[in-house]
Amino acid sequence: MHHPSLLRKPGEIDPATFFGDMCPRALALRGAGAPGGRAAFFLSGEGGGTWVIDLSANKVEAGVPRRATDVVCVMDVADFEELLRGRLDTAAAMEAGEVEIAGERDVLLALSDVFAST
Length: 118
Hints:
Blueprint: H1 15-28, E1 38-44, E2 49-54, E3 59-62, E4 71-76, H2 77-85, H3 90-95, E5 100-103, H4 105-116
Parallel strand pairs: 1-4
Antiparallel strand pairs: 1-2, 2-3, 4-5
């Protein structure tokens, strides 16, 4: 059986690849004194799951958060993949109820920096 990421077209990024490979690399490049915080991602649909990006420890954990997070993001895999490609209008998706993002603004800004560096 092949890993789901091997069945995708070149240039496509799935959540497992992002959280398991790309995000940890981006976190490793963050400088000392970078903003901390924790963000939980709940992704529904094929290839979905739950991940926590811990900006304070510069690591990613798979699974349900074991302690409180500063940001919560809930969406389906298709919307998350569009977000990674820079093609998701987050405000419109939130207004339509397709995406839920809530939490501390400074952590959201730090997350956007991590996403931009992947």
